[in-house]
Amino acid sequence: MLAIKGTYRLIGSEPDGDTVHFLPQDPGFWCDVPGKNRVERNSRGGGKIRMEGIDALETHYPGVSPDPVHQPMDLGAAGARDELISWLGFSDVVRGEDGKVTGSTPETVRGFVLASGADTYGRCVALVGRGDLPANVPNGRRIDVPPALLHQTANHHLLELGLVYPTFYNNLPDELRLDMTATSQQARATKAPTSVWAHDVTTDGATIDDLASITDHQVILPKLFRRLADYIRLFGPSLTCFPAYLAGAGEEFFLPEQTTSVTGLQHVVEINGNTIRMTRKIEDIVLVEK
């Protein structure tokens, strides 16, 4: 991963539990982020970080509609967002009516990212650290990231508290994926009251009567939520055609017992009437980054 030091800033953004804005000390290092996709920069030279290996409950997902939807806020959707902001070192965050941050104390905080690539939306995929880079990690250089360094990041912190789901792509080194899996499984077993695991029904089954079933009442894996929210807004709550909708998305992933990839999340989803469940735990799935 590429080590880059810089600053985090909230003002003008609408942060959630797995994305944050980052300005490198030297924006030229964005050009060195590995992979075929390029990091999209703003006028300041900053970019958006999609945090590696985690997925937080949605607080403002637009998808197919200009009107964003969210997952149950009273069941923890804001928990990961608020914990991330606090962990980075921000306080007294003020938001406007549109949800964007208009003020924070301080305006910026020092930090670093360990970047593994960029996604198709131009977001840098990275582990998020606070403060200075460790003394043995040179700025702008690629390094092998050991679990000990992973444990110093917000990604690990949020997984440990059970505030986010693990969600792995194939560019994450196996050693780090296995470490994050163990952390997530411990959080699931603990089921802290403020965690997603205290409310999650992804593998037990969610009953879908309308969009509010997943925006207001039931907590499911964010990836499944996004697909369902789009589908319901386009076609209504009947799940009859949802497997075909998933097949059309064509998401490619690996399962532990298979040596070749599988295409389409319909292979790990089971529908019985108006109840839907995933047949595999999310940490068993390794998605292929496009």
What does this structure look like?
The chain is of the alpha+beta class and 290 residues long. It has 2 domains: 2-190, OB fold (Dihydrolipoamide Acetyltransferase, E2P), CATH 2.40.50; 200-287, no CATH class. Helix content is 24%, strand content 24%. The protein has helices spanning 77-88, 147-150, 154-161, 174-190, 212-217, 222-235, 242-249; strands at 2-9, 19-24, 47-51, 54-55, 91-95, 101-105, 108-118, 124-130, 165-166, 168-169, 206-207, 252-254, 262-263, 269-272, 275-278, 286-287. A 5-stranded mixed barrel has the order 1-2-3-8-7. β5 (91-95) and β6 (101-105) form a beta hairpin. α3 (154-161) runs parallel beside α4. The longest helix has 17 residues, at 174-190. The two termini are 18 Å apart.
User: Which architecture of the largest domain per CATH?
Assistant: Beta Barrel
Q: Tally the beta strands.
A: 16
Order of adjacent strands in the largest pleated sheet: 1-2-3-8-7
Element-by-element helix/strand order: EEEEHEEEEHHEEHEHHHEEEEE
In helices, the fraction of residues equals: 10-25%
The main sheet comes to: 5 strands, mixed, barrel
Would you tell me which CATH topology of the largest domain applies? Answer: OB fold (Dihydrolipoamide Acetyltransferase, E2P)
When the domains are counted, the total is: 2
The CATH class designation of the largest domain is Mainly Beta
Low-confidence stretches: none
Helix and strand composition category = alpha+beta
Q: What would you report as the Rg, rounded to the nearest angstrom?
A: 19 Å
